[in-house]
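Re: [help] complex structure
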Amino acid sequence: MPRQSAVDLAEKVRVQAERSGAQEAEVYVEASTTTEVRIRQGQIELLNQAAMQGIGLRLFRDRRMGFLYTTDLRDTVTNELVNRTLALTNQATPRDENKIPEFLTMSQANLEIYDQAVADLRAEDLVRLARAAEDSAFAQDKRIQTTRDVRCGASTVEINFSNTFIGRQTFKASVVWLAATPIATQGAQKREATYVDRKRFLADLARPEQVGQIAVERALARLGAASVPSARVPVVFASEAAGGFLGGLFQAFSGLNVVEQRSFLAGKLGQQIASPLVTIVDDGTMRRGLGTRYFDGEGVQTHRTVVVDRGVLRQYLHTNASARRMNVPPTGNGIRSYDQLPAIGPTNFYVDNGSSTHKLVEEVPNGLYVTGLAGFGMDIVSGEYSQQVDGQWIEKGKLTKPVEGVTVAGRLDEMLLGINGVGRDLEFRSNVASPALRFQSLTVGGSA
Amino acid sequence: MPPERSMSRRDFLRKGALITGALAAGLPEAVSFLHPRIAESAIMGIGQELRDVLNEETVNRILQEALARGGDAADLFAEQRFRTSIVLDSGKIDSVTYGYPRGAGVRVVRRNQTGYAFSDEVSYASLLDTARVASGVVETQSRTNPIDVTRRNIAQPFTLLNPEPLLVEASKLDLLMRMDAAARAADSRIVSVRIEYLDEARDILIGTSEGIYVIDRQYFTSVSCFPAAQAGGKRASGLGTLGGRVDAEYFTRVSPEGAAKAASLQAVRLLDAGPAPAGPMPVVIAPGWGGVLIHESLGHALEGDGIRRGTSILSGMQGMRVASPLVRVVDDARWPNGRGSYGVDDEGTPGQRTVAVEGGVLQSYLLDKQNGWLLTQRSTGNGRRMSYRNWPIPRMTNTYIDTGTSDPQSLLSGITKGFYAAELGGGSVETTSGNFNFAVREGYAIENGKVTRPVRGAVLVGNSLETMQRIEGIGTDLVVELTRGTCGKDGQLVPVGVGQPTVRFSSIVVGGSSI
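Output below.
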């Protein structure tokens, strides 16, 4: 955790900036500790132990903005940086939206994002969890002879924040993770798969045996995969793949992209942009959420924002600046680390569970079940989507054979409106998540 | 080699105070808008601030501590970066940033085991602690030989006369404004322009238990222009990039306005693009940034970690056919001004030119020290890290398919229905299966041997070994892209170069929406 002197120093630097001519100043101190072990064939391959600390200082003068960050807290350095950054700030263009938020009402509720049990984990504990997951992977099936590795880590962070209007505010958060990547071998073919769980609280973390087992199931399911002929068919994205898709879609909801005409969702507020089955939420206050925080990177209280309500676009997501440009209240989505300016990002961003018990796969006569996404394929400006995927082929409502080396493609607006099934398997192992989604019809690109 | 220390710290502080005092009196901009820490280091000498704390003697003692509990090797990596970044959006300078990250990491290696720890504070005491923490990976007690590091010279791959970060801030702002104006003037359908500028000087100091002690400064500049076009309810974006490991004169040799205009015209062309086709077909990829293909298809699979673990499709394939006989693949850390170029890698090994594939046969892997040792081979100078907070892993530098013998135009002939990739986007690969993909930003249909109508972006997918066998023609028009390319692996981002001449494939699966 931060040397108290760092927090004091940050305050001193902010006050100094204000005295030197910054009308508004904001300081963000981030101090974290991380321990990660990587196990392979029972042996420790990596033991990484990190304690880091940095400060970011944002300055405003005459609606111009300048920013500096450093890990070097010697005061001769910080003095010099402040003065030169102020000089540089004069070169920026005045912008009305360049203003820091003046009020912060911290949520009084306990959001449960810090677990002392995670902070207390030692390297030996992590080694034990990782070994148990790997042992379990090897025990599942004789086709599992090796792993890429099994990783177990724990991290805690303390944020200290203040600005010209708001006195020092602070919170702590923790996260623990366990990820197994077994490799299944059959003849000359090798296929890997990863299963990762990530939680704020140690008690919520999946048991290592379960992590190893699910990862192995995934790797084995890929053996023997082949391409399929190109076709236009219904496509079901399994929960994790749907979460990956939603993560790519996030920037289309960014207020800045919307105001700058860089999103296919610009100008669509109040319109039906997705099937009535779809509700999308960004919730920075979700208890134990991986994206939960008491306030965002510029001191705005976090919110629960319904972005898409039963298919209707209700809200874009904002930093303070993008909210000012669109004349709406900020949404607490100013995400940053000490070395970055706040930028619009997700807190806990998810598609809500479906309300009916859709049998997503069972209802498909002929189609593709997508379990893995690779690479980049979403263009949120033009609204085009094309991505490498793998999974299983669906025939008469059953998964019949593993598929790889194929693409799925469509136009995002048509895809969202064409969602005709939303699963009930929403689970948070990342801060962006979705239940399984079924798209009415996508182009699968494969063999001739 | 950096100049010896020319001034004591106290003298510097006095001089620093003079400069600050003179600022108010209105010194020319050239002095007033330099990155503040660059100014200090210009007075003190490259890497001198790090060397003040980490001279040969203190490095010896820190490495001794790192190996006190045993281990085969240890190294110390200290770094400080001077970064200036500027963002222009909607015609205004949105933000200006000075970054000054600084710290050092210690690594202890025992066979395939790595212990790593770092400190954001560069002091002898904190790095002794860091060394002790890093040594925690080693479970045995053993004696180590005394360590004695000696300063080595670095053979720089090229010389920068007037490195970019010394360009004055005012001219950077002017550069962005000029590019913005040019991008907007290119076409009335341009509705938005964002430009991101970054320059950096990175000082590194490396000491290793083998006795190496090096200090280097690496310069880096990047400008990206993102225009968006809108018409008739359609939107499209363009991309223009400038930079590399270049000097200040670079911006007078290239045309920033030209690059911005080209990016806008690309966005406008894509407004009219129809849907891309789906399925396997002959594909021709344009030179330069098209090298994303070789980076994904073979490059990552050549990296030593996957080879050593036996998890890469290219494990055990040295001396074997991995591509069409037309193919030579080179990874070159010494390519002039390349994004991935350096005189020394992040383990202290000189950067080199490695012929990885010759005549379609795998000649050499891309190795860092640890994986090199474990494979009983030598490092090829490919040990890189994102920062002092990361341990080195084998990475590409500037990777390209070397020049071929075909007239580029002739590579289109005989294709009745195919796909021309004029510009790629990003890509990815899974090295255990060899399945890889790369996105196309700007594509065209090939019809009866001619490039015809524009088609919207699509990903192309394939399997490394199959796809590389399907190369049936390589042009004479090699281009190595210097201005874009950032590779992510294991959470570490590093700048890389990629390149190729025009290359023709008999068949690749195109992932469009039109069947």
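Chain B touches chain A through 89 residues (CB under 8 Å).
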